[in-house]
């Protein structure tokens, strides 16, 4: 099949002006060009369309039947082209009916979920949130399955955009009536107590073990779990320390009798962010969602991660 020869779309505004004005001089004034330039454009249009378009009638010109037929579709085509080339209009989020799919871990859902869902209910009653759990994240899912990834971001492909969120610190939590709850948590005592750690892949080694090894210490991991909230509730029924994100720890400790304790090690914060596909980068409703997530994250100060 041969290549399709597209018409010169720059002719469309001139054709619209000629059909509206019914004269070369009027069209030239409308387009802010000289009459001679418009006359040359009319010549080109006649060759392209195979019709004279404007013909003499007394002292002026008149539209041919073909030109009269062209007026409605040309007006519509020009209006459509202008609309397509305008920036996206501001959206009234209160009128949007849409379902957004977010992917994150349980800690982010606990920490960001309440302010985010409250804002949706207050500002965007037609919006629904589908929150999916983390798994084996593939950034390619952002092209069609997922609207927003929230958490520790992998290396992202060129067609995915991202925005940082407040970083994450880790803390230790224990039940309020644990025998060691009121003791000073020295690094030696920290290493001696059994630990519950959060890891999706069941790993028994992390930066915590590296920092302890530098001091000639080692710890015993009692169990690993994939969920921050699960780790907190396991600590509630044992004498172990659960190592979780500071924000989720604070939220859970408001509900159940847990004590939040600072880890006596220089651990690096965990960088967090959100990622989305470039196809929705300028979408007004998606921008509103990203701003809502960022506001929820900054309002909590610290967000979530894995230990």
TrEMBL record:
Q: Which PROSITE patterns match?
A: HTH_LYSR (PS50931)
Query: Which Pfam families does this chain map to?
Result: HTH_1, LysR_substrate
User: Per the database record, which ranges form the HTH lysR-type domain?
Assistant: 7-64
Annotated GO MF terms: DNA binding; DNA-binding transcription factor activity
Report the InterPro entries cross-referenced here.
LysR-type_TF, LysR_HTH_N, LysR_subst-bd, WH-like_DNA-bd_sf, WH_DNA-bd_sf
**Superkingdom field:** Bacteria
Q: Does the keyword Lyase feature in the UniProt annotation? A: no
Q: Which CDD domains match?
A: PBP2_DntR_like_1
Keywords (alphabetical) are: DNA-binding, Transcription, Transcription regulation
Instruction: Report the sequence similarity comment from the record.
Output: Belongs to the LysR transcriptional regulatory family.
Which protein is depicted?
LysR family transcriptional regulator
């Amino acid at each position: 099949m041969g290549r399709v020869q597209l018409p010169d779309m720059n002719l469309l505004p001139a054709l619209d002006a000629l059909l509206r004005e019914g004269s070369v001089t009027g069209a030239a004034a409308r387009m802010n060009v000289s009459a001679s330039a418009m006359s040359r454009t009319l010549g080109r249009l006649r060759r392209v369309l195979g019709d004279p378009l404007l013909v003499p009638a007394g002292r002026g010109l008149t539209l041919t039947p073909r030109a009269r037929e062209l007026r409605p579709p040309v007006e519509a085509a020009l209006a459509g082209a202008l609309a397509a080339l305008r920036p996206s209009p501001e959206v009234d989020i209160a009128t949007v009916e849409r379902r957004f799919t977010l992917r994150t871990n349980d800690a982010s859902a606990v920490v960001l979920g309440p302010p985010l869902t409250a804002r949706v209910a207050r500002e965007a009653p037609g919006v629904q949130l589908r929150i999916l759990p983390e798994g084996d994240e593939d950034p390619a899912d952002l092209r069609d399955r997922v609207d927003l990834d929230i958490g520790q971001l992998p290396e992202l492909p060129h067609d995915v955009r991202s925005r940082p969120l407040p970083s994450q610190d880790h803390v230790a939590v224990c039940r309020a009536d644990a025998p060691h709850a009121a003791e000073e948590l020295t690094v030696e005592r920290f290493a001696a107590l059994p630990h519950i750690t959060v890891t999706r892949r069941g790993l028994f080694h992390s930066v915590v073990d590296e920092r302890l090894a530098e001091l000639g210490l080692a710890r015993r991991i009692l169990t690993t779990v994939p969920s921050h909230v699960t780790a907190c509730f396991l600590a509630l029924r044992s004498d172990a320390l659960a190592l979780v994100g500071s924000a989720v720890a604070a939220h859970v400790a408001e509900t159940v009798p847990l004590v939040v304790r600072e880890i006596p090690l220089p651990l690096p914060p965990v960088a967090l962010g959100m990622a989305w596909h470039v196809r929705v980068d300028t979408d007004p409703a998606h921008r509103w969602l990203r701003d809502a997530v960022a506001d929820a994250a900054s309002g909590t100060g610290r967000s979530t991660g894995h230990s």
